[in-house]
Amino acid sequence: MAQAARAIIIENGKMLVMRRNKYGNEYFTLVGGRLGNDETPEQALVREVMEETGLTVTSAQLVFTEEHAEPYNSQYIYLCQIAPHADVVIQEDSEEGQMNRHGANMHHPFWVALKSFDDLPFRTPQLQAAIVQALKKGFPKKPVAL
After folding, report:
1. What residue spans define the domains of the chain?
2. pLDDT tens digits, residue range 46-85?
């Protein structure tokens, strides 16, 4: 069973999302990805955020869990704080950087205004609704299963 870790990163009234164009199917999702062998969700989160954005996670709080069909059965969604940074850029040597070079499965980190997040064609509507609700009422202190 595959597992993935995803990051909710909010800064200056915007949320960082990943714009995907996977073989002509365009959608948005959170930054993150599959856990590697012997990796905890927190370790995968830090690695995936670095690979996909160049950002350093300084703290992470698990706020949601979500079950999915293959390939990512269990997802762990964290509210993250990040270190001061310059531009957000996919790292060239990452899996996403390699896919971008081939041009059929594109990844582009994208800052979206919080007020516009609800209008995105988000990959997992249930998670999107939970995030929208949390933006209004606050993120849960203990993880919520979606």
Report:
1. 3-138
2. 999 999 999 999 999 999 999 977 766 899 999 999 999 8
Read off the DSSP letter of residue 78.
Answer: E
What 3-state DSSP class applies to 98?
Answer: helix
pLDDT at residue 24, as a whole number: 76
**Closest to 101 in 3D by CA, of 111, 90, 109, 87:** 90
Q: Which DSSP letter does residue 71 get?
A: T
Which amino acid, one-letter code, is at 29?
T
For residue 49, give the 3-state DSSP assignment. Answer: helix
The distance between the two most distant Cα atoms of the chain, rounded to a whole number of Å, is: 41
pTM (predicted TM-score): 0.89
Q: Which CATH class is domain 3-138?
A: alpha beta
Question: Checking DSSP bridges between strand 3-11 and strand 14-22, what pairing results, if any?
Answer: antiparallel
Letter for the amino acid at 127? L
Residue that the structure tokens 């762990």 belong to: 76
Q: Are 2 and 70 in contact (CB under 8 A)?
A: yes
In terms of Cα–Cα distance, which of 79, 92, 11 is closest to 50? 92
Nearest to 143 by CA among 67, 25, 88, 63: 63
C-alpha 3/C-alpha 20 separation (Å) is 19
